[in-house]
Amino acid sequence: MLNSIDQYIQNQISRAPIAMKSFTHDENSEPYLTRNIFIRIKKLLNDFLEGQKEIRIAAIPGLRGVGKTTVLAQLFMEFFPKMPDRILYISADQIVNTLGNDLSSAFDSFQKFLGVNFESLEKPLFIFIDEVHFDPKWPSILKSIYDRSKQIFVLCTGSSALSLQSSTDLARRAIFEKLYPMNFTEYILLKSKHSSAQNLKFPEKGLKTALKNALFFSKNAEEGFNQLKKLQGIINKYWYGIDLMEIDNFMRFGSMPFALTIKNQERIHALINELIDKVIEKDLLEIEKFDSTTINSAKSILLLLASSSELSVNKVANTIKNISVNTLSDMLHALERAEMLIRVYPYGSAYSQVRKPSKYHFMSPSIRHVLLTLIEGQRAFESYKGYYLEDLIALTLHREFRQTLISPIMYDSSQGGADFVVNLQNKNIVLEVGYGEKRIKQAETTLNKINGNYALVISNSELALHDNIIKVPIKDFLLI
Fold first, then answer.
1. Per 3-state DSSP, what percentage of the chain is helix, strand, and coil (rounded to 5)?
2. Burial class (CB in 10 A: 0-12, 13-18, 19+), 279
3. pLDDT tens per residue, range 29-85
4. Does the predicted model carry a pTM greater than 0.85?
5. Which of the listed residues 156, 176, 196 is the one where a domain comes to its end?
6. Which residues, including other chains, have CB under 8 Å from residue 128's CB and lie 6 or more apart?
7. What is the tally of structural domains in the chain?
8. CA angle 281, 282, 288 (to 5 degrees)
9. How far is the first Cα of the chain from the last one, in angstroms, to the nearest whole number?
10. Using CA atoms, how far apart are residues 47 and 435, in angstroms rounded to an integer?
11. Which domain holds residue 111?
């Protein structure tokens, strides 16, 4: 008689292709469209099959709800027909929390079914692991798999803290492909799939790179403006047939993939609120061993942040009882590592960055919107559009430029200072953000103060050039 882990592995081998369909297809049995990360991971897997064996572990960390399990299931379904007897899909959550077992036992069981030890494999083998972080020993277990055989490629998903929890040895062996909330063009593409439109709305080829180069890698404002002007034809081509109200819809819920398939807004609110609670109750405890009093304060901290991006730790500690300044700092750091928040330091020296308050943006404006709706009801959206847009800009900058431990993204903490200062290739580019018509004064003040190269004012204005300041329409910037 099979024990529980043997039975589980047997079921996964025989039933996984059928079970995966619930993650990869909608209620009409139509396949979900893939996100951009699908192409990057698929290439890694194909390279492995073609003999490139140095990279044999890939991990997909990210905030809850951004679609990690769907991507993993789509990749499983992509490769299963090619190698049905050499691919395994397992859930560490089920193995650890349902069966009371661990990944090592699951791999021992899999070897029994294969009839060969991993060390003796002669053909490539794929192991897909969902929510790998549920086994606390996952880094050492995956390192062991890496060292035992060059014929095994492990692809796993996990919480946002996945790369932070990995050992130094494993970090050298693995590639971490972070999955972020959707960008605007992904949102429009997936929405066109779920609408009655006959044609899918794909991004214009090369437009994102061209926009990024014009906005952030021009020599000066005039060059950037001229490049943006040349791109207006292709930008307008993309926007043809898209209602500008989609920007509002995107800020409400559009960055979270699951919201596209749900028509009831109350249900979406409930799911995002549940996501927030799970991050607090589960993910934070993986990062830091907070006591119950501190965990119970986490949502109050998020609610305070939702109505004011700039945060004084001392003031919040005085507002929330039973939490010290040091504990609050640890909590904010944990929320940042859980990818609930994006921290933006004040511009200046290391001393001023410690002395002055940081700004905290939400990884998705949907999270801020749901939190504010809890407080202010339906009026929360119109009242805080500027904050939602700042979250989107912060996410774009974080996604595109935070590739190192030292973030190039800051803000001007002085009175009337600009929302962002981005340091790239020894250039300081100032960004000021506003949902309506935005004046250039704040950008100009910060630009002069820091002797910046040029500034971008992102708003509902038309594209325009004012000395070394470019007024950039929101609809242009969102296509990055």
1. 55, 15, 30
2. buried
3. 888 889 989 999 999 999 999 999 889 999 999 999 999 999 999 999 999 999 998
4. yes
5. 176
6. 72, 75, 76, 87, 88, 89, 90, 154, 155, 156
7. 2
8. 95
9. 56
10. 44
11. 4-176
